[in-house]
Design a protein that fits this description.
The chain is about 50% helix and about 15% strand. By secondary structure, the chain is of the alpha+beta class. The protein has two domains: about 5-50; about 75-125, no CATH class. It has a two-stranded antiparallel ribbon. A two-stranded antiparallel ribbon has the order 3-4. Strand 1 (about 65) and strand 2 (about 70) form a beta hairpin. Helix 3 (about 90-100) crosses helix 4. The chain starts with 5 loop residues before the first helix and ends in a 5-residue tail after the last strand.
């Protein structure tokens, strides 16, 4: 069995303290480097991950046949969605939408009362006056 002298124990303790001090200094240095030097770049990358750009499609041109008759034109249309979790009175909303859009009340009521989905499509291809 090996016996340690007071002098050798002090050397080992000093080496341990120096190693711990070096590790904490390196860690604090790295944190300062990340925050002060790369902070702006990392903030920009984080913002890019949380936001998205939706492309806006240009309107198509009107297509005519050889006689000048319109084969394909431009017509804006809208879709109506409902978020069931945001609806307080399902009966009232289903009743009003079924009258306004000429839809089946029962089917509409079951769609709106289904709170397991985040969004329900009520009707597509609506005109601006209907909206």
């Amino acid at each position: 069995m090996r016996k340690y002298t007071l002098h050798s124990l002090q050397k080992r303790l000093l080496a341990l303290v120096l190693a711990i001090t070096f590790l904490f200094t390196a860690l604090i240095g790295r944190l300062i480097y990340i925050q002060l030097i790369n902070g702006t770049d990392l903030s920009t990358k984080a913002l890019d991950q949380w936001t998205r750009d939706l492309p806006i499609t240009a309107s198509r041109g009107i297509i005519y046949d050889t006689n000048g008759k319109v084969l394909a034109g431009n017509k804006a249309s809208y879709s109506l969605f409902v978020r069931p979790k945001a609806v307080d009175d399902v009966t009232e909303v289903a009743e009003k939408l079924s009258k306004l859009l000429d839809l089946n009340y029962g089917a509409l009521y079951s769609k709106i009362s289904n709170r397991t989905v985040s969004e329900v499509t009520i009707k597509k291809q609506l005109e601006k006056r209907q909206i």
